[in-house]
Amino acid sequence: MNAAPVLRLIFRYNSRLSLLRLWRGEIHNAVQLIGVLNMMLAAVQRHQARQLLLNMQHLPPFDQPLQEWLQTNWLPRLRRSGIHRLALLLPQDVYNRMVIEGLLWNSTRKSLPYEVQYFTELEAALDWVSDAELPTTANDWPRWWHQPTLLRLREQKRRRNCLR
Question: What is the mean pLDDT of each run of 10 residues along the chain (164 residues)?
Fold first, then answer.
């Protein structure tokens, strides 16, 4: 029997923005996704994060048991986590996108204790969670591979616009 691939998860917490963000490898199945989402909630509580950037872009198909677990287990715990803002990078897969939007829509029967914004691009999500404040201090991004993504994306966009 083949062992499941080990996920390398890196949670980055920006104290100035009270923002938790996850860098992760590929998630291949629902069991891995459940583990990642549980670890993320634990990190939110450990750091008392007030903002969460959740990248749902490259995930496996959401089967029915996963959808039920999200609706009955994870979303209620997210509601009680204390976050104020959730930036959600929507899945590129149309089916997963509809599932995520449907789950969040269903969870709004009661008013949500946090703001939710949907994004298709990381740059826009980072702008929203940082209120367009550029996270550029060494304390915010201590390692070169975690340099401000927002700055890199803006620079790439600026270069592309200059070439046109």
Answer: 56 87 73 87 92 86 89 90 90 85 73 85 85 50 48 68 69
